[in-house]
Design brief:
2 domains; five-stranded parallel β-sheet; 15 helices; elongated
């Protein structure tokens, strides 16, 4: 659930690995997501705040929305809450008489109060935009036969505000639940993230409200793109049957964490996969030539041809140092998978050679991906 403004922003930044990186943006109607379990983003108690940091494109937003699904019945997405927070504080700055008041205590109490006031407004707006009846249902949820209803509040792009992060870490989710007038059997949990959060970690949670110390978990996303890349790649390449068993085995050896992390083992695995790939291409080319001589339909051969073309493109990406380095970033990995998928379709439609030896992989794959990554991240002029 999100306000229309936040939903529009989410659509613009969402990357589908099945679409071409250079195609026009499609509305986010449905998506295929891969569960990446991580203990650091699981809630250990109702009062725990999860704080996520990491570079742009590392998968923070999608992880907070879709991961650990058993811990949420509904997800409320709020983007840029710190801007509303800062604006509310500025509006009050000229109205308060701070004489004879300890400035630090005054500012902290003010920030804490404004934090909750802002979130109440934004959460209600998100629910009202998506499912207005849910707010009423949550207020009357305290019925014995009903299970606890779990709500996850995702606060995205908060990395720019140290003050907001400090208050967020010290906040009590149950206090927000009460301000929203939700019943006791509604379980509200908060997960917040943004680029730059890790740079402000030294002062996180240093303030205390009441007698209890704040509780939060800190998770830094980095180098998670490879696991997602292999999932996306396997989903696209279609090597799931018995047609190219040797090639599938070679790919599985390559995707092992130990193999990929070791330069020499990776080189050996890449070479082994490429030898098998060339043998498959040669065998299929011979089969296609024979079937054409006999005027046989090419449906099955065409599907097999596309599989090998796509595998060849992935092979070129994984063998290129620049492309391989980009795979550690989930957003770049998704864009690369999308671009490979699009180029494979183009090669099949134009009946080009299955071998990708003549393809400039950086020109054909990496450059369009780089430009799209800049567009999504607001770095068009970088």
């Amino acid at each position: 659930m999100a306000s229309q403004e936040d939903w529009d922003a989410l659509q613009r930044r969402h990357v589908t690995f099945e679409a071409a990186a250079t195609e026009g943006k499609k509305e986010l109607q449905r998506s295929r997501h891969f569960e990446v379990e991580d203990w650091s983003t699981k809630f250990v108690s109702d009062e725990t705040i999860i704080l996520m940091g990491g570079e742009s494109g590392s998968g923070k937003t999608m992880h907070m929305l879709t991961a650990n699904r058993e811990q949420a019945d509904v997800v409320v997405y709020v983007r840029g809450a710190q801007h509303h927070f800062a604006a509310a504080l500025d509006a009050e700055a000229t109205d308060k008489n701070r004489e004879n008041v300890d400035c630090n205590i005054f500012v902290w109490n003010q920030q804490y109060r404004v934090f909750f006031e802002v979130l109440v407004v934004l959460v209600k707006a998100a629910i009202r935009n998506t499912n207005p009846m849910l707010g009423l249902c949550l207020q009357g949820w305290d019925v014995s036969e009903k299970a606890v209803f779990k709500v996850r509040l995702c606060l995205d792009e908060i990395g720019a505000s140290t003050a907001f992060i400090r208050v967020c870490c010290a906040a009590r989710p149950d206090a927000l639940r009460k301000l929203l007038a939700w019943d006791d059997r509604v379980q509200l949990r908060i997960i917040a993230g943004g680029t730059g959060v890790d740079m402000k970690s030294e002062t996180l949670g240093c303030e205390t409200i009441g007698s209890e110390a704040p509780t939060f978990k800190h998770s830094i996303f980095s180098a998670r793109g490879m696991s997602l890349y292999w999932n996306m790649r396997a989903s696209l390449d279609g090597l799931t049957d018995n047609e190219f068993t040797d090639l599938k085995v070679a790919r599985e050896k390559l995707m092992g964490k130990i193999t990929w992390a070791n330069v020499e083992k990776r080189k050996a695995a890449l070479k082994n996969r490429d030898v098998i790939l060339q043998a498959c291409i040669k065998g299929l080319s011979t089969a296609i030539a024979k079937s054409r001589e006999n005027d046989e339909p090419q449906g099955d051969n065409r599907a097999s041809q596309r599989r090998l073309i796509l595998e060849g493109l992935f092979s070129a990406v994984e063998s290129d140092g620049g492309c391989a380095a980009a795979l550690t970033n989930p957003r770049l990995a998704a864009l690369i998978a999308a671009r490979c998928n699009a180029v494979a379709n183009e090669m099949v439609e134009k009946e080009l050679c299955m071998s990708t030896s003549g393809t400039n992989i950086r020109q054909k794959i990496l450059r369009p991906v780089e430009q799209e990554f800049k567009n999504i991240n607001g770095l068009k002029d970088a």
